[in-house]
Structure prediction request, 595 residues.
Amino acid sequence: MRYAELAEVYDKVSQTTKRLEITDILVGFLKECPSDIIDKVVYLTQGRLYPEFVPIELGVANRLIIRSIAKATAVKESEVEQLYKKIGDLGNVAYDLLSKSSKQSTLDSYSTETRGNGVTVEHVYENLDRIARAQGGGSQEEKIRLLSDLLRDALPREAMYIVRTVSGALRLGVADMTILDAMAIAFCGSKDARPPIENAYNVSSDLGAVARILVERGLGAIKSFGASPGRPIRPMLAERLSSPEEILEKMGGKCAVEYKYDGERVQIHKQEGGSTALYSRRLENISDHYPDVLKLAGEGIRSKSCIVEGEIVAVDPDTGDLLPFQQLMHRRRKYGIEEAMSAYPASLRLFDALYYDGKDLTGEPYPRRRAMLSKIVKESERLRLAEQKVVVKAEELEAFFEDAIAEGCEGLVAKSLGEESLYKAGARGWLWIKYKRDYKSEMNDTVDLVAVGGYMGTGRRAGNIGTLLLAAYDESDDVFRTVCKCSTGFSDEEIRNMKKLLDPSIIPHRHGRVDSKLIPDIWLVPSKVLEIRGAEITLSPIHTCGLDSIRKGAGMAIRFPRFTGKWRTDKSPEDATTVNEIIEMYNKQLKKISE
Ligand code: ATP
Prediction:
């Protein structure tokens, strides 16, 4: 097929913004398109060569494109560059220069066999594919050769679109949904056929493959097309509500609630006898960033093949506490993966099973998928299922929400338990409802807390005290009640000297004036006061500060505590922030939310 025909479609599509017109243009073209290149044409129209999840980038640098245009048109590189500076679009530069040179060729009766006869879609795709895959020494020269070969043969308009494609600037703005409509009309006669086609796309994220199956094997094949490992499923998304009552009402009086972890969503695909891959919420292959997650999945997921979904979370190696999402972003890097892996080790909290040993589970209701998940996952310290509970009362839901916040989560995701609770790939709907705190609370003030215990560090901090158990002062009983564990904000030197500094206070048992449910590695006589900044105060089942004052069984915790660097040597432990002050700060926060 001549690439000029595709270029014509691009031209027409760029001249309108109306979705119906764009659909019509695509329908006409798809009907004419040979079936063996339909997938390629679909990818090209989206400005790429493969589905999004294939980790091969086309992206050719402008510098190389300029050299390729110069080579193809026999114009000096500096001239191409100047023209680019003037026009600002390399596609137009290629168009202008090729238009001039073809006129010149006719004048000189220069052989038109080699120049300006046009190229085929197959040829364009093949060269672009080779460009995208070229790697290592000599690859830049190879890319220039492949691109200039194409441009030399291309018509000016073709060259314009080829250059825009390789530079990542095609951006026709054709939505995936428009292509789906066009496929339904072109191959099945009407838009009514779109739902099964869209479903096939949602479970495969591969528009090209769906088009090819539709043309070659018909709608029947599309209807029976299911999820399979190696093709990421477009994620199901949640609606949002802001009170437990509304959530329960929407869910028909009963639902499951799960912790909403503050990490990176991941789909784990394990192929039979083959590899395991990780895909992000945006369907990128992120396997290279998380070798530790691949290992966890390899060890803990018992199946020949499967697709499971969950959240990658960062966990403080010293305390085991969940860390905020930002910490995990240190893992999204190209180099230094090993270092990042030991500084920010990842854990997994799985919440769904979408495929298991040859069977697509997306059409099963949530309770069955969750049961399957617990069957195939062997939990360990770092690999767990998302905390879950079935609730029927608003108070239960609220209490679970507070536990989630206390554990460092963002809130809850409520999930329907009904027969209709299928995994709706690619859709945001009411089968999942998220319930989060809608405010960003910063504790207005720092607090001064007393060290009452210590934990030995791991990794870089091995052999040293890496974490302190901190307490607030309770005036009424003259005791110190724990409120957080803190391991951040200390310099390496402070950590090295911590043992020496605390040595005079170390005792073999809990001090009589310390109230703690936790048992640290080392107990301390309450003496040292540290200034701490936290993100917010939450209810907590594990700390004793303010126990029972807001809710029976719950104390208070400072979330994400960080040492400011100030040892308050000017304060005695009895001058530390009091339990009552912490309760007051918590209540102020609540007022802030309701305002
Ligand atoms: P947000 O920014 O609130 O995470 P989102 O648009 O990424 O929103 P939503 O579907 O609206 O996604 O909210 C659910 C998100 O919460 C999921 O994308 C997932 O990353 C995360 N999450 C954490 N824990 C769970 C869980 N137990 N079940 C489902 N999603 C969870």
Observations:
- The domain at 48-166 is CATH 1.10.3260.10 (DNA ligase i, domain 1).
